[in-house]
Amino acid sequence: MIGKVITGKSFRGCLTYCLSDKKLVKESQADGVKNRPSEVLLFNRCCGGAKELSRQFEEVRRLNPRQSKPVLHITLSMAPGERLGRPDLLNLVETCAKHMGFEKNQFIAVEHLDTKHQHLHIVANRVGYDGRVVSDANSYKRIADFCRRMEREMGLQPVLSPKRFLPKEMRAVPRQDLRKKALKEHLQQKLLSSHDYTSFEVAMKSLGYRVERGRGIAFIDQKGVRTKGSEVGYPLGRIERILSQKQSTSLQRRRKENGAALSSHSAEKNIEPPHNQTSSVTKDLLDALLRIEKESEEIPHGLLQQKKRDRPRRPHL
Asked: SS3 helix, strand, coil % of the chain, rounded to 5?
């Protein structure tokens, strides 16, 4: 389970977002999810629609006018394939309220049904009826601790907390970003099957990615998440080198197959790889580019000394 905490200024905007229709019924049915966009799970010391709730929250907020960010917005998302029933969701919300310290304040809990993965929103008033404010100190660590606790108690799929909140002995545990792992595999596949940059970009778009190319390159997946090529080991420069080398290898292979090499180019022909090795060159292309070593162009110090000694001396006038 993944939890997020946001503090804000506007109850109206946050409540409208959580309670409003986010998708049309036809779009929801086409995606295979329920045609109801959201469902209220719990009202705590409040009731009504977004407009009425906003008015009620604002009235209590005035008990502490110095607080500039009275809105506490928490999102709890289940792992793909996990679904909790209504009793478990209510238990989750009530336990979260106690853990974060707003169980005696106004809050609502809403389950969103517009996506395939189950998730819910909690909107709470940080200002209580006594005028005291719920602290937001260490809120990221506290929500991470809450998620790990509920994963153990409810048998949910475990997720590692952010590294800065983990014990020292667990910070070395390798963490996998499945989204980046999939992007890296797709890049490797399409670089091997593409013959130039245009065909490579078309191939990536066929997998659902949007490609942004400028001074560097980035890929945006179907969820709208943007990942730089350099983050997965494929910056723009490396991609261009790979495709350029593939074009050069392909051109050499076509020349040899057509038998069009002239005698004046025999030296070039002699250094070409044998035909039965061409496929292996292409196959190992990605790794080979990383192992290219640049030769030093500096003149050895000994040669500089010899050159200086051999220089004829000019007569002194």
From this structure: 45, 15, 40
Give the Cα separation of 238 and 235 in Å (integer): 6
Q: In 62-177, where does DSSP find H-type helix? A: 86-100, 139-154
Say which residue the tokens 């392909």 belong to.
250
- Averaged pLDDT, 169-190: 77
Are the CB atoms for 133 and 100 separated by under 8 Å?
Answer: no
Nearest to 281 by CA among 248, 258, 256, 236: 248
Rounded to 10 deg, the angle between the 178-193 and 236-258 helix axes is 30
By three-state DSSP, how is residue 100 classified?
A: helix
Q: Give the residue from 45, 120, 116, 117 showing the smallest Cα distance to 86.
A: 120
Note whether 8 and 71 are within 8 A (CB). Answer: yes
Domain enclosing residue 142, as ranges: 2-170
Q: Are residues 196 and 64 in the same domain?
A: no
Contact between 29 and 35 (Cβ < 8 Å): yes
Q: Is residue 239 part of a domain?
A: yes
DSSP H stretches of helix in the chain: 11-19, 25-30, 50-61, 86-100, 139-154, 178-193, 197-206, 236-258, 266-270, 275-283, 285-290, 301-310
- Which of 128-137, 264-273, 302-311 is the most confident on average? 128-137
User: What do you get for the CA distance between the two ends of the chain, in Å?
Assistant: 90
Model pTM score: 0.53
Question: How many domains are there within the chain?
Answer: 2
